[in-house]
């Protein structure tokens, strides 16, 4: 388990939605996550807000085989640059996973599901991805 204070800006984070889906975003530090909301708005929100209307209570961070947090070069900056922009959100073709992948790589690739995102991150970072919980207690 990672302490929140050790999670670097640019880390990929995820929480569950009713045990059926996952919601991803980019951690930018200071307890803030940039996400693509279902309305199409890209926004920076608190971790508690990231959990709103979702069943997941655990924040997980993308790590390599050794459990080290993975961060894409320029990832946090790309996420921050998109705050307050509006995208044409589509559950299949332009969702949080596509947004997250774009922030990590700078490329616009089709991402239909969390599985697609995990596969692309593993390819990009050349490692198996494991998701490790973040300790949110203060």
What name does CATH use for the topology?
Answer: endopeptidase fold (from Nostoc punctiforme)
**How many separate domains make up the residues?**
1
The CATH class label is Alpha Beta
Shape: globular
Average of the residue pLDDT scores: 92
Outline the low-pLDDT stretches.
none
| Count of DSSP strands | 7
Helix-strand string? EEEEEHEHHHE
By secondary-structure content and strand pairing, the structural class works out as alpha+beta
Radius of gyration: 13 Å
Largest sheet, strands/sense/barrel: 7 strands, mixed
**CATH homologous superfamily?**
endopeptidase domain like (from Nostoc punctiforme)
Summed up, the helix count is: 4
CATH architecture: Alpha-Beta Complex
Features:
138 residues, alpha+beta, endopeptidase fold (from Nostoc punctiforme), 7-stranded mixed sheet, 4 helices, globular
């Amino acid at each position: 388990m990672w302490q929140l204070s050790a999670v670097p800006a640019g880390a990929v984070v995820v929480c569950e939605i009713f045990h059926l889906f996952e919601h991803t975003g980019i951690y930018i530090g200071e307890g803030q996550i940039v996400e693509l909301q279902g309305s199409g708005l890209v926004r920076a929100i608190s971790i508690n807000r990231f959990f709103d209307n979702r069943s997941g209570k655990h924040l997980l961070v993308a790590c390599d085989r050794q459990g080290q947090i993975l961060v894409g070069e320029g990832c946090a900056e790309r996420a921050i640059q998109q705050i307050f922009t509006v995208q044409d959100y589509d559950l299949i073709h332009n969702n949080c996973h596509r947004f997250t992948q774009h922030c990590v790589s700078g490329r616009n690739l089709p991402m239909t599901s969390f599985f697609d995102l995990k596969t692309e991150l593993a390819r990009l970072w050349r490692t198996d991805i494991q998701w490790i919980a973040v300790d949110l207690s203060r």
